[in-house]
Design a protein that fits this description.
The structure holds two protein chains of two kinds. Chain A contains nine helices and no strands. By secondary structure, chain A is mostly helical. Chain A has one domain: Up-down Bundle (AhpD-like), CATH 1.20.1290. In chain A, helix 1 crosses helix 2. By secondary structure, chain B is an all-alpha fold. Chain B is globular and about 50 Å long. At the A-B interface, helix 2, helix 6 and helix 8 of A face helix 2, helix 6 and helix 8 of B.
Amino acid sequence: MAHIKLDNDLPGIRGLMAYRPEMAEPLNALAEVLLRDDNNTLTRGERELIGTYVSYLNDCFFCQNVHGALAGHYLQCDIEQIDGIKQDFRSAGADLSPKMKALLSIAESVQKGGKQVTTAQIETAKTAGATDIEIHDTVLIAASFCMFNRYVDGLGTWAPQDRQFYIERAPRRAEEGYQSSVYK
Amino acid sequence: MPHINLSNDFPGIRSLFVYRPETAAPLNALVQALLHNPLPSLSAGERELIATYTSSLNTCFYCTNIHGAIAQHQLGNDAETVKQVLINPETAPISNKLKALLKIAAKVQSGGKNVTSADVEFARSEGATDIEIHDAVLIAAAFCMYNRYVDGLATWQPDNDELYDKMGEQRAREGYLTPPLKVSEMALTDSK
């Protein structure tokens, strides 16, 4: 049960957005530009992967499943592969490019704290071909999930435990984006 | 030195807004809604104190200083209250309700699941409504994002009280949707 009376039974962040729509609007606009805008050299799948990875590190069940299912949908891989990457992306082999491994390493540091990102990690990413914008977006995506995860767990929202629920919803979310009927 | 090529005309998060306006828009819309617009909830000064306190727990110099300055101006130029909150909220000249909400903010900062129903019940017993509890959690969560963004890209964070005071006064008055001035255009008496 959530820590406050939401007057709806929507799961995770959706229940919070229905409760407080004036905050939902900018939060959804942020998710939309960060994760779904195609004017980006990182693919949607790569960006969702950063989101699910940070959510895994923050141990947020709802967020890592929503975004893990979306990553799987875009990258056309199953949930076991996504889980494998989250548990140990460094051993992912050919599944992940050196650039993505470098960016996930940066995301891992951001999750601990902004100052944990080292110049060595930045250099490794640049050597692997990451642009300044890609590094910027990786940091901001990781940082934003440190917000979303705390919001969802900090208010004690509920989450469906069957992972199939998230897998089934992913194509529709991919199609509709984050700004329409997220909390419906 | 910043990790990416940022303008040195703007400090902290401003350099990032100038660098990437597409993400600046929703980030500013969020902080405008969270901290500046009138809410059926906490005052702007109280909300800025939650933001400043969270930023100090995350040891983000820029964010602590700018939101400390905005808080000061939202509280009728009360620098002392801001200072006391950063030293120890429990002994600061603020309401018991705000003290309880700052405890929740500290829990959020350490991790969402660290907020317990006891923390929430305590805040309620000190007069916090559900909306106020919601907003305290979201402000603390949002600043865990902003602080990581500002430090994660190693932005320039000047040590200049006058600069933060001028920026803070502007933001308290205008909100977060007006463009920032370049530091070089701000007529500071002591530029570092």
